[in-house]
Amino acid sequence: MSDPAGINEHSTKGFFTDTSVCIGCKACEVACKQWNQLPMDDLHWIGSSYDHTHRLEANTWRHVTFAEVPDAGGPGGQTNWLMMSDVCKHCAHAGCLEACPTGAIFRTEFNTVVVQQDVCNGCGYCVPACPFGVIEVNMIPESGDGKAHKCTLCYDRLTDGLEPACAKACPTDSIQFGDLSELKERARRRVETLRAKGLQAYIYGDDEVGGTGGIDGLNAFFLLLDRPQKYNLPDQPSLPQNHTFPGIVTMAATALMLGLATAWSLKDDHR
Fold first, then answer.
1. pLDDT tens string 111-134
2. 13-238 maps to CATH 3.30.70.20
3. What are the Cα distances from residue 198, in Å, to 149, 187, 190, 192?
4. What's the CA gap between 258 and 31, in Å, rounded?
């Protein structure tokens, strides 16, 4: 297991998730719910996967995805399973934080992104601002509080010098916690090792794949063995607000032209 001893509050902390050793046990999901006192999911089979927790949501901050690749070894070959423990990416440039009008979402001294429920007003602006569909407003009848929720990277544990609960519980060390620069170097070495064995390993969450479109990298990044879509991740994510500026410029230009046309027509009427 990764050792969080001597956490430096002035360095960026994050997760490196190595999907090549994930066994889909969901120990991380259970540990996350236990530590954060999150209610149990309404478990049911969806018919398209052995996964029964389905997705990240207000009460599920860690989710192990199951992707079945049939006949991976050719006709008659064994089915290949792609498993990955998904979580909030704690983006270097977080769209949810930018969209929050109350300051409920803030960046911690560990460079992670956390929602303060006592400040959140439940407006939901953060939900469409996340390119990964991570954050959700809890609107569950009777039990929901109407506030936004997501992974905090166990901020309370970090402030006490403890490792996040999910990484602590992972039996294969698929989820590794630590200083981001050290994790990236560790990930690069792991990719080289897997590629030497003939596997198509790569990092999702750097400036080339997954951390593009103004996000500037993910503080929770992944080693993948197949296309991002197989893991329910966008291929080239980008901040939604980056797409609003051209629309605003177009609307402003249109409004200006309409205003000039109106003024010109009124001027002609007075002649």
1. 999 999 999 999 999 999 999 999
2. yes
3. 40, 17, 13, 10
4. 58
